[in-house]
Amino acid sequence: MCQQQRRPAALPYAQAPETTPKAPAAAPASGSRRRRLWELDGHAYCPVIGVCLPLPQLRRLADKMLGGMQQHNDYEVHCIAVTECRHRSPLSEAVQKELEDRYALVLRATRQLKSTEALGRWWDDCRTSADWAGALWAALTHPRCDTVLEHRILGEVHMLQHQVGMACRADLTRLDALHEENAILGRELANAQARSQQQARQFSARLEEQQALALRLRAELVQSQTRQMQLQEQLAQFQTSAPDLPARLALSQQNRQLQEDLQALQRQLQQARQEAQAQRERAEALQQRRDDMPGPAAAEVAGDPLRLDRRAVLCVGGRTASVPIYRQVIEHRGARFLHHDGGTEDNSSQLDATLAAADLVICQSGCISHNAYWRVKDHCKRTGKQCVFIETPSRAALERALEGMAAASSPTD
């Protein structure tokens, strides 16, 4: 609202009263010349000066053209500018040039508007935007802006200023709330900074402890590396003084392995001896029982030992611990005992000679190599010798095989 101090009055759009009568604004010409600032309607100066030109820039122009603006407040500077712009003056020309330069792009965009209706539609589109100051200046000074359109634009600008004022008051309210919230957040930030500083001090103390620990560990590492180098030097000296030390170490390791193997073999031998002793004891017990039985019963149990007299019985295969038991059983029947392990330890080339010297063959098929098995079977088939294959290397299986061989050979004896 612009009022002159000598004659306060409430005019539309806060216009300052004119000191001299002004002719009514002429109707828009059909040409393309735009109106100047001092040619506008009297109601247009207040909104144009207040909206289109920022107050700091207005104060600079007024002080430059008129001087002595420092002693006036913003409202007084505005009123003086409105009064000066009603007619052509140095200040109005300076404001005209400033507005032309400031809104040159908007003014260039309105050159294509050739009718009042087109200008009105363009203004309706622009006034809804946030920056409509340039649109106001371009519309009011446009050559197709008539009195009706000018009054409509000024009325809408007047209402927009009210809305802007209400928005400013709402913004001030929000600003006060933001100030209060900012104070609360500032206090919370101060508390958070205090906590972070305390944590920083704690972390700094822990960091110092960890650095001290790292120094101790680094010193221990250096000591261990020094000790390792000393030991390596001693090892190099030992290797120089004893060139055959690696060979000795290898032999010592091999000797240790051989001792372990020997101990394992000794344990196996002891176990085999224990098994042989148990077999011997069982054989003696059976022999004792057979001796205590009557003659016919003993003959029925033991069979006729004379049937194998002077015969060579060959046992191929079997366990080493069971060989004495085989020998005892066969020699007890009056036969001559021959044995071949089936190629495990004895030379497999001796198997043919041993087979040729035997009258009867007993093959332990479960404890013999495949080569020896097929050689025994082939030899007995070619020579017609009696051969019995048993799977279980036990005394009872051997006795049953001998009884079967004795029964099979009894018609020819």
Describe the protein:
With 413 residues, this protein is mainly alpha-helical. Helix content is 64%, strand content 5%. The protein folds into 3 domains: 12-18 and 28-171, no CATH class; 244-302; 305-412, Rossmann fold (3-Layer(aba) Sandwich), CATH 3.40.50. It contains 14 helices and 4 strands. Strands 2-1-3-4 form a 4-stranded parallel sheet, sandwiched between helices. Helix 1 (45-52) packs across helix 3 (74-84).
Derived structural class = mainly alpha
Low-pLDDT stretches are 1-27, 295-306
> What amount of the residues lies in strands?
under 5%
Number of domains: 3
Computed Rg: 66 Å
Averaged pLDDT = 78
Provide the helix percentage: 55-70%
How far the N terminus sits from the C terminus, by CA atoms, comes to 158 Å
Series of H and E elements: HHHHHHHHHHEHEHEHEH
> What's the number of helices?
14
The shape is rod-shaped
Strand order of the largest sheet: 2-1-3-4
Tell how many strands the DSSP assignment holds.
Answer: 4
Main β-sheet description: 4 strands, parallel
Produce a short descriptive summary.
This protein is mainly alpha-helical and 413 residues long. The protein contains 14 helices and 4 strands. The protein has 3 domains: 12-18 and 28-171, no CATH class; 244-302; 305-412, Rossmann fold, CATH 3.40.50.10700.
